[in-house]
Amino acid sequence: MVHKAEYLDDHPTQISSILSGGYNHPLLREWQHERQLNKNMFIFPLFVTDRPDEEEPIPSLPNIKRFGVNKLIPYVGGLVAKGLRAVILFGVPLKPGVKDEEGTAADDPEGPVIQAIKHLRKNFPDLYIITDVCLCEYTSHGHCGILYEDGTINRELSVRRIAAVAVKYAQAGANSVAPSDMIDGRIRDIKEGLLSAGLAHKTFVMSYAAKFSGNLYGPFRDAAGSCPSQGDRKCYQLPSGGKGLAHRALIRDMNEGTDGIIVKPSTFYLDIVADAYQLCKDYPICCYQVSGEYAMLHAAAEKNIVDLKSIAFEAHQGFLRAGARLIISYFTPEFLEWLSE
Ligand SMILES: NCc1[nH]cc(CCC(=O)O)c1CC(=O)O
Ligand SMILES: [Zn+2]
Ligand SMILES: [Zn+2]
Fold first, then answer.
1. 287 labelled ligand-binding
2. Is residue 134 part of a domain?
3. What is the CATH number of the domain that holds 182?
């Protein structure tokens, strides 16, 4: 067995152990990045409500607010001026009584998402609009699909409904649809729906292909009011130890015709991101730094355990290192500033 390159035997000074010459200058340190963080990689999550004048902070998500359409446009305008390229929309229906078993409100033409798509499209023609597609914000039970009487997911009805919602968002002007339920077969139904609607050629299907069920979605569920009233999502979203299952889910969504791949959460799942980079090498890989990850970094910064800006760079550089090309991040407004400095 060989532990040492042969030529080193002639060099007792171990010249190959001297690495610091490669990073002793700030510019050199940047040259060591295979890829640099860039404004065009960032996708900003927006919570949109059906109360047009609402602008409401979310206590567990520092600096993030829920917006009604009237407040959304000026807010997004400020970010577009700083270089924002893409957003992902999450609907938050607040009107009492709109939630039902089937999530009917998800594609209500007067509902928050379709209204937001239309206003954003009109005001910012170049903004790339992705819509999260899920039923959990709209169902009375808070699950991501339609349920059988025994509370388990009715796959057939769920994916049909999710596909119908995705098509409505694309018809309203969304550039991309991102189904986040993880129910088998929804990518195929969405693609077929887009094809029948004549929209498949201009809609990017970005699947949450490896979405793990876990402890990091709490602040989001506060923001969106989408916590399941009974049970959890463990029967349709992956167990945290499920590396093999994650691979199979990535392959499933590629076979069903997805265009892009999201891995979520990110920081605790960088091995899965790296695996996706190999397994889905012909697809753009997107990391979603979820609400819990974001909130934890803020909490640590408030306790002076970390410096917020440095830790945010470190985390996001980790996503790129693992193989991500896109990042859904609540830090997007900060990065638009930081990357301008
Ligand atoms: N299914 C909807 C959805 N899409 C993205 C997130 C979470 C994002 C975050 O925590 O920032 C969720 C919530 C969930 O699965 O409970
Ligand atoms: Zn050996
Ligand atoms: Zn959901």
1. no
2. yes
3. 3.20.20.70
